[in-house]
Amino acid sequence: MHKAREIINRFHEQLLFLKEGYVADVVKTDIDTEQEFPLVSVLMGPDTREELTKEMYQHQLTLYTDISVRVGKDSLYEAMLDIREQIELRVLQMQKLDLDFVFRITFQNMGEPEYNGEGVDYTCKTRLEFMVEYFSQHDNPSA
């Protein structure tokens, strides 16, 4: 299995605890507006690499974590920031995802929230960005 896939799978697994009182689901796809809210989606961004040695690459994989909530307009910030707090706390505890080829995970930023005020409830979607740095071999992205 490619190391990027292992990272995404492990990151997703580590956020499943959110289903216990914080969100309806944690998925590894883009968010479908028909799904139940609140929802967290883990998505892969760019995966850049540079040569470290003749045998090894050092990668920087961007992981996006989209948070989507649908609540009354007075609760938008509270609901979104409660979920964000739990995600950030878990990422701080992840300790390199317990994968020996990962050497650092850092929170990069939160994108500007997108709001939609149509209908009875308001929706808000925002994106958290994390950088996962890892090593791979030149001749085998799985090793």
UniProtKB/TrEMBL annotation:
Superkingdom of origin organism: Bacteria
Protein name: DUF3168 domain-containing protein
